[in-house]
Amino acid sequence: MPNARLAIDALIMITIEGVRWPGLNAAHKNLVKQLPLIAAEFPEIADCHYGTINVQLHVPLLVVAPDHRSQPIHWDDADFPSGEVFDLLRIQFAAPVDAAPVAAWLYIPHGSPARATPQIHEVLARRLDIPAEAQCRVTINRNAVQLAYRYFPPMVIVV
Questions:
Q1: How many CA atoms lie within 13 Å of 112's alpha carbon, on the beta-carbon side?
Q2: Residue 122 and residue 140: Cα distance in Å, rounded?
């Protein structure tokens, strides 16, 4: 692709808006088993609600360097006999967008089908009452790179 152009912008803080998205309803059941095991390694998530907020971001987001990557967690020996790895990224989350942001984490289970879609992410936080399809905002205070490709939508990569 000799005419393809690549734009790279280094960002110290990135804000991406999105919308609350219906999920598979698996996190509520699974987090009862997973959260205590993950929190043993990463205690700051210990008080999170046993469920996630599914968000479809307006810009794809790829987390290359999370704040925490778990060891393989043995929470479901039938589906994950070798354990499952979880990435966590600290964020500020506001939903609806004019609400005060709260401390939250992107919860990235390596065995989740959502990992195949970089616009869909799960948010861990204290219990929040958010209307269906509410507009929301994710703010990441980390180094990030925004890549714009000619043939693909722009993508933000947290490094």
A1: 23
A2: 14
